[in-house]
Write a structure and sequence with these properties.
two-stranded parallel sheet; 69% helix; mainly alpha
Length: 204
């Protein structure tokens, strides 16, 4: 298969206005999420992190435009081993014991998250066989899912008695998750899933 043929699906996706504006759209979403997170009574650091992520995306785009080239370095493909899996399980068990939204829990979650983002941001994906590209229909489906979740979250937040009092008549996503994550075991399972998904995405 030649280069033109492999590039065709990606070229078609580039013609979708929503996808062409994706970086700007992500920045807007992060800023809005940070704003609503701060006014809904959550720890201020949560909103600050979202604002910082938006700023980092803008700064990275400016730097790349000024350099006129990709700033990423080739990366070695992450290797999954029993050692890595053991670390993930140990991490999930220990951090799952921490109280939700506490400083120890926030710091413990931030360390691998920041490390993974920094690694993925400054490196290019490892070379491997060309993966199947998402078509126009797939892109529309994924966009619809994220938009629906965003509208649900915003509507539920505005229908609460106040912005800082949750209502199970109009639950936000966090309110739905509260009963599920009440136990140590449940938090550990979700942390392990989070780590597994993150490890997979770093390799994409």
């Amino acid at each position: 298969m030649d280069e033109d043929t492999r590039a065709a699906p990606r070229g078609r996706l580039a013609n979708i206005p929503l996808l062409r504006a994706l970086p700007d759209t992500v920045v807007i979403i992060l800023v809005l999420a940070g704003f609503f997170d701060m006014i809904s009574g959550n720890p201020i650091i949560h909103g600050v992190v979202l604002f910082a992520a938006a700023g980092a995306i803008v700064g990275d785009a400016i730097a790349r435009r000024g350099a006129g080239q990709q700033l990423r370095k080739p990366a070695a493909r992450p290797r999954t081993s029993l050692y890595v899996v053991g670390i993930m399980i140990g991490y999930a068990v220990v951090v799952g014991e921490f109280t939700r939204y506490s400083w120890p829990a926030s710091i413990a979650v931030a360390i691998p998250a920041v490390g993974a983002v920094a690694y993925a941001w400054r490196t290019s994906p490892p070379k491997r066989p060309e993966a199947e590209q998402v078509g126009v229909f797939g892109a529309i489906v994924w966009a619809s899912v994220f938009i629906a979740l965003g509208v649900w979250e915003l509507a539920a937040l505005l229908l609460q008695p106040t912005l800082i009092i949750e209502s199970y008549d109009h639950p936000t996503i966090s309110a739905v998750m509260d009963p599920i994550l009440v136990s140590h075991a449940a938090r550990s399972v979700f942390l392990l899933l989070w780590l597994a998904v993150g490890w997979y995405l770093v390799d994409r």
